[in-house]
Amino acid sequence: MQITMGMDSSGPTLLVCASDGEKTWSLHHTGIKQEQFLLPLVEKLLGKGGAELKDVKKIFIVRGPGRFTGIRISLTFASMLQSLNKTEVCGATLFEILRRQVEASRAFAGWKKENPSGVLAVVLHAFREEYFLQFFDGKNEGPVWLSKEQLLERLAQRQEPLYCAGTDKEGVSLVELLGDAYRLAPMADSHVRPQTLLEMAAHPAYKKDALEPLYLKPARFELGR
C-alpha cells in the first residue's frame, strides 16, 4: 500500500490527512502539546485506511509561518519518516497553500475578470496585534510580519484592487480587521483544506526546501526597515 500524508501543525489545530490514491480521510485535534497526541492521531488516521507508518511514501507539510514549536513538530516528524522510511517530503508555506485554494476558486476568477490588475494578498494573524502578510503580484517579494498599524498602512498604499484571503485571531474572518475596503475570500478558501495538501504533494516543485521552516521576524524587527 502506498499512502500520501498531509500535515499542518502551524496553528492551534493539528490537521492530518491521508490518501491511498482512491480514498481520502482526515482528522484534526485542537489543543496545546501537539507533540503528545501527534503519533496517536496519525496512527488513528492511518488505521482508518488499514495502513501503517511504513506505508507512507510521501508526506506534505506546512513550513510556516506560525507557532515555532508547532512548525518543528511537522518538520521533525517528516524528517523521521524520511530517514527511517525513505518517505518523500514536500512542503509549502501557508501563503502558498491559500494562494492555490484562492486562485482555483470561482469567486476569485470572477473578481479577477472584473479587476484584471487586481492583486491577491494573504493576511494571517500572528501574535496579539501583529499579522503576517504576503502579496502575490509577480514581484516574488517574501512575506513579512507586521504590526496591525503597519499591515493596514501597507494594504492602503497599494494602488491596485486587492483580494484578501486569510484569517484573523482564533481563525475568524478578516472582516472586522479590514471592513469592506477590500474583497475578502470565502472562509472555505481561507483555511487549509486537507485535499489541497494532498494535491500539492503530487507536484515535484514542492520538494525543494521542504524541510526549511518559515518563521519570519516579529514586527518590532520590521520597524527599522
Describe this protein's structure:
- The chain is 34% helix and 27% strand.
- It is built from eight helices and ten strands.
- The N and C termini lie far apart (51 Å).
- It is of the alpha/beta class and 225 residues long.
- It has two domains: 3-93 and 192-215, ATPase, nucleotide binding domain (Nucleotidyltransferase, domain 5, 2-Layer Sandwich), CATH 3.30.420; 95-190, Nucleotidyltransferase, domain 5 (2-Layer Sandwich).
- The chain has helices at residues 34-48, 68-85, 94-103, 106-114, 148-157, 175-178, 187-190, 194-200, and strands at 3-8, 13-19, 24-30, 56-62, 88-92, 119-127, 130-136, 144-147, 162-167, 183-184.
- A five-stranded mixed sheet has the order 3-2-1-4-5, with helices on both faces. The protein has a five-stranded mixed sheet with strand order 8-7-6-9-10.
Overall number of domains: 2
Question: N-to-C terminal Cα separation, in Å?
Answer: 51 Å
Mean pLDDT: 94
Q: Major beta sheet, specifics?
A: 5 strands, mixed
CATH superfamily of the largest domain: ATPase, nucleotide binding domain
Query: What name is given to the CATH topology of the largest domain?
Result: Nucleotidyltransferase, domain 5
In terms of per-residue confidence, which ranges show pLDDT below 50 for 5 or more consecutive residues? none
Text of the CATH class of the largest domain: Alpha Beta
Class derived from helix and strand content? alpha/beta
Strand order of the largest sheet: 3-2-1-4-5
> Over all CA atoms, what is the radius of gyration?
18 Å
At CATH level 2, the architecture of the largest domain is 2-Layer Sandwich
Tell me how many strands there are: 10
Helix content: 25-40%
Strand content: 25-35%
Element string (H = helix, E = strand): EEEHEHEHHEEEHEHEHH
